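Usage

Read records sequentially. Each one opens with the input sequence:
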Amino acid sequence: MNAIDLQTSITAAQRGDDIVREKLIRRYRPFILNTVGHICQRYVTWNKEHAVQSYHQDLQSAELVEEIIEFEHQLARFNIAFEELERVAPQHRDTRERLFQIADDFVRDEELVRHLFEKKRLPVSLFTKRTGYRPKTIERHRKYLITLIVLKLNPQWVHLSQFIKSPAGNGGSS
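and closes with the structure output:
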């Protein structure tokens, strides 16, 4: 599904087109199950849930799918594929915590954010001059930082935002 068809489908599903919504859910079903399992922190299957729980999970899954599709579209603007995120995510908690702090500092500066979205590039030299962070650190984790920045700038993505609330501890991406 190309980006235009995907965006058209998302818009139709958001406007209440149940058929399109079901097609999106069916297409992204494995991803939905995996993501819901991570959020719920337990193994989830499509058929073994009680009716009410299943309804709520399906509703949350549909919302999550919409968020993921929108998120994926935003990342594509920066030439970042959703599938690469697991590979570029730092393994060490202290590195993730440091990158969360760097992303927080970045989103506080409107000029840096504007530059990022206009040029579709992380303004490494400008950012490092203003903050004192090492360019090597920023460049090494560029894709992960852009991902965090995009998530932090879109708090309306309620389900995805759960992944970035707390880099340490139980909530978030640890």
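Summary fields computed downstream for this record:
- Residues 84-164 form one domain.
- Confidence is low (pLDDT under 50) at residues 169-174.
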